[in-house]
């Protein structure tokens, strides 16, 4: 009788084990032993640029949490190693050195700022490590290397859209510029100047300022004296952008202000409606109500207790995690195979839109033109 009982117990254990394998259940002691997949992330987590680095970090984590909850990548959990690259090339280079040589990661998500991505690219390229940015837009990134990707369109397009809108829609013949001396802002400056001139316009003032500057009155005075029809301003960070807009208005300049995405961040507009009233900004086209996008924005609001301040770049970060996870699931942690997988991506249905990478690792997405009216963003084109 005792032997019969033992037989049935063993039979039950075997049946249970087989059932567990069929439905994908992994015994708890085995799953704990599975090493995680380490992915490096370098964002600006301190300083002025943290105003968008931290929200982008949260969107990145939301994607990883979703994937990990669903079983991870081939049964392995995603583990991020975060580094503060502070929106500059020097810190990004140091962050990349650490992630590549100490942490031995095969994929780095970042940077947020163009200077970060350009500062890290020589390290990742030399070591054949994937570098994929959710938001860096400098035209120089196009040729930064075979292992460099981004899901934000190049400023070579954004600057053209801005200059065409100034010339064709605002009917401006004279333009003045005030831009920050950063890779991001200078990329837009060069493209805007060149294309505005091609369209028959004239640049009557071209002023720059350093990232640490807080007094822009000299630049504002020169721009006012130039009597331009439109003023194109490109700051790098939210705090400086509002200060710049305020000092331009304080100088008595009544001309139309045109800008890029930083100055029309959602929270920035709500909190500085008077200072930003009337400003027109160019940003990547984006549908807040698309299914994946709406889920992401809802989850972010639940976690952060605020609306997403820069939804386009946050959606890009969310998509990057899924793109990387899919490539690792299919190819393991082989950076060259992951690279080839990313180059083959066509019409990936992301929160930021349909993602296709070109031969340079750039994504091609459209742009929209918005204006601040009564504390709200209104789409013009």
Map the helices and strands.
Blueprint lengths: L1 H21 L5 H6 L3 E7 L6 H20 L8 E7 L4 H13 L5 E4 L3 H13 L3 E4 L14 E3 L4 H15 L4 E7 L2 H16 L3 E8 L7 H10 L3 E5 L3 H13 L5 E4 L6 H6 L1 H4 L3 E5 L6 H14 L6 H21 L3 H9 L4 E2 L4 E2 L11 E7 L2 E4 L2
Parallel strand pairs: 1-2, 1-3, 3-4, 4-5, 6-7, 6-8, 8-9, 9-10
Antiparallel strand pairs: 10-13, 11-12, 13-14
Helix pairs in contact: 3-12, 3-13, 4-5, 6-7, 13-14
Describe this protein's structure.
The chain is of the alpha/beta class and 381 residues long. It folds into three domains: 2-31; 35-154 and 288-365, 3-Layer(aba) Sandwich (Rossmann fold), CATH 3.40.50; 156-285 and 368-379, Response regulator (Rossmann fold), CATH 3.40.50.2300. It has 14 helices and 14 strands. It has helices at 2-22, 28-33, 50-69, 89-101, 114-126, 155-169, 183-198, 217-226, 238-250, 266-271, 273-276, 291-304, 311-331, 335-343; strands at residues 37-43, 78-84, 107-110, 130-133, 148-150, 174-180, 202-209, 230-234, 256-259, 280-284, 348-349, 354-355, 367-373, 376-379. A seven-stranded mixed sheet has the order 7-6-8-9-10-13-14, with helices on both faces. It has a five-stranded parallel sheet with strand order 2-1-3-4-5, sandwiched between helices. α3 (50-69) crosses α12 (291-304), α4 packs parallel to α5 and α6 packs across α7. The protein is globular, with a radius of gyration of 24 Å. The termini are far apart. The model is unreliable at 1-31 (pLDDT under 50).
């Amino acid at each position: 009788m005792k032997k019969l009982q033992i037989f049935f117990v063993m039979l039950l254990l075997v049946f249970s084990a087989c059932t567990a394998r069929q439905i994908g259940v992994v015994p708890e002691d085995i799953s704990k032993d599975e090493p995680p997949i380490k992915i490096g992330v370098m964002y600006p987590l301190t300083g002025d640029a943290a105003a968008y680095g931290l929200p982008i970090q949260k969107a990145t984590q939301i994607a990883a949490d979703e994937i990990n909850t669903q079983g991870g990548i081939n049964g392995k959990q995603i583990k991020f190693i975060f580094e503060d690259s502070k929106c500059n090339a020097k810190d990004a280079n140091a962050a990349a050195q650490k992630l590549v040589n100490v942490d031995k990661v095969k994929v780095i998500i970042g940077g947020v700022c163009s200077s970060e991505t350009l500062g890290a690219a020589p390290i990742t390229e030399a070591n054949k490590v994937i570098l994929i940015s959710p938001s860096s837009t400098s035209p120089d990134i196009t040729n930064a290397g075979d292992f460099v990707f981004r899901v934000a369109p190049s400023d070579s397009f954004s600057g053209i859209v801005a200059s065409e809108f100034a010339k064709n829609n605002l009917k401006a013949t004279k333009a003045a510029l005030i831009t920050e001396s950063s890779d991001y802002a200078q990329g837009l400056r060069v493209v805007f100047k060149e294309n505005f001139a091609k369209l028959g316009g004239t640049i009557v003032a071209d002023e720059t300022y350093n990232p640490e500057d807080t007094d822009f009155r000299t630049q504002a005075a020169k721009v006012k004296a130039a009597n331009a029809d439109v003023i194109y301003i490109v700051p790098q960070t939210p705090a400086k952008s509002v200060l710049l807009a305020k000092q331009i208005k304080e100088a008595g300049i009544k001309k139309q202000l045109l800008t890029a995405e930083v100055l029309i961040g959602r929270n920035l507009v709500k909190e500085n409606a008077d200072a930003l009233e009337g400003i027109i900004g160019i940003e990547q086209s984006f549908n807040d109500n698309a299914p994946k996008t709406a889920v992401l924005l809802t989850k972010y609001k639940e976690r952060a207790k605020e609306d997403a301040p820069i939804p386009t770049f946050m959606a890009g970060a969310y998509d990057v995690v899924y793109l990387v996870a899919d490539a690792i699931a299919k190819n393991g942690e082989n950076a060259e195979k992951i690279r080839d997988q990313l180059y083959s991506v066509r019409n990936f249905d992301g929160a930021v839109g349909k993602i296709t990478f070109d031969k340079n690792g750039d994504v091609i997405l459209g742009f929209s033109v918005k204006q601040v009216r009564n504390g709200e963003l209104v789409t013009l084109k």
